[in-house]
Design goal:
By secondary structure, this protein is an all-alpha fold. The protein has one domain. It is built from 7 helices and no strands. Helix 1 packs antiparallel against helix 3, helix 1 packs across helix 6 and helix 3 runs antiparallel to helix 4. The radius of gyration is 16 Å and the shape is elongated.
């Protein structure tokens, strides 16, 4: 496996930190269950009793992603979680760029950050500069 340059490593860490911080905030909101989270979840068509389990799942997935040894597993699990968010927004007909694609944007940041900071991912997805 090739080494990652310092520039790529720090860029990857910063790009990874953005979804980590957002998803941790989202998970904690689901665990604490303030009124906006409850009303938002109900508006998405879910019962209030799914908020806590969703928060636990999101917290575990995000922690797995944040830990370098388990970051690939965390990215895979977060991709599934974010895919569920996309499906939810499609189901209720939310706007494309603001609601429906937001989980896609987060998923891109998750994988781009991981690609830049982890040589294992670079080995799996090699980009060639010459044909």
């Amino acid at each position: 496996m090739t080494n990652v340059s310092t520039k790529a490593l720090w860029t990857g860490r910063i790009l990874s930190a953005l979804p980590i911080l957002f998803l941790l905030m989202d998970a904690i909101g689901k665990l604490v269950k303030p009124e906006p989270v409850v009303t938002g979840t109900i508006a998405l068509g879910y019962n209030e009793n799914v908020i806590l389990p969703l928060g636990i799942v999101l917290l575990v997935c995000t922690i797995l992603y944040a830990v370098p040894q388990t970051s690939i597993l965390g990215a895979i699990l977060l991709t599934g979680y974010l895919g569920g968010a996309v499906a939810t927004h499609v189901r209720i007909g939310n706007p494309l760029f603001t609601h429906l694609l937001f989980p896609v944007y987060l998923g891109i940041l998750v994988w781009l950050g991981l690609y830049l900071r982890d040589p294992r991912v670079r080995a799996l997805v090699p980009f060639r500069s010459k044909l």
